[in-house]
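Quick illustration, no need to memorize.
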Amino acid sequence: MPATDQTWYPMKLLHRLFALASLALLATTVWLVVKDHQRSWKQYQRAAHRIEGRMAAWRKYQFETDDAVRRRQQLESQRDEVQRQGLERGLLAQFRAEVARDAQRRGTTAELSSFDRACSQLDQSDRTSGAQAVDTIVRAGTFRAAVLAEIKNLIAAARQREQTQANIQKLRAADWDVAKADMGLAIRAGRPAADLEQRQALADRLRAEVAELARQQEAAKDQRLALDAIFAQLTAGERALEVALAASRADLARLEATVAERASTYFRVEHGIPLPGKKFLELPILDAFNSPLRIENLWAEGLTQDYNFRQVPRFDRCTTCHTAMQKTKPASAGAPAYPQEQLLEFTLSVAAQPATPRLTA
């Protein structure tokens, strides 16, 4: 039978059917992508992220209100006022006596000339501050800072001596361990009694040195702790205000970080450079690659379900939709962050109209 170019079905019909099938496949693919992008739990998470971002932004605005800014300025002014005040002379004398006592214990002379000079300048500033001139107050704050700097230097030197003493003790303790090991090996090897006595004397001497070094290290630690305690008393008011200021600034910084983390935009600017934002990861198809929207699989250990052949772990996915069920109000451990909606009805009673008096002729 001769070959022909005829087909069983007309080619034009096949082309039309193929085109229709391709369009149907394209429509089905688009429909699948849209349905996956619009899954119910993703809608809940998008709404929850918007709510959390907006709440964080509102709390940030609250920290930037006039009252909050005035509170931080008040704390800063109080701190500056405390820093301009003098230091208690009794504590300064106690600090100096503690440093001199430690130097006497070590058999050296304490280097306190810089400390005494700074204290003398602070005393002169306090005696001449009766006029409360601006330059006098500034100089008083400078002299106070100089005294505190000298105190910090003396404490740092005490801490360095404590660390050095601890290192020497460790090295000497290692020598003692070596001597004890040599004594044990000599006894096992059956060395002469004279050799054993010599090794035992060395071990005893090292043990006494280690005990003395431990006593000196403990004394250095006690002295450093005493100096730290005096410094803490000198700066108690200033440190309390610094802690309050740091807490206020930390809350603001944490809210700013939360706002930046929850922000879902197509572009974000860092150091003046526009970078792609999280919004791209929420687009169809792209949301399959490290999207911020994901199913929460929480595994409860010990809570299994029986499938006859084995106990299968149970996974809890409730928080996938109920994203805020575990969140509480700021500074509260039990109050829910988003309480259940309540409907309140108010009834306003109309005041009774006064009776109109009759007019008689």
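The mean pLDDT is 82.
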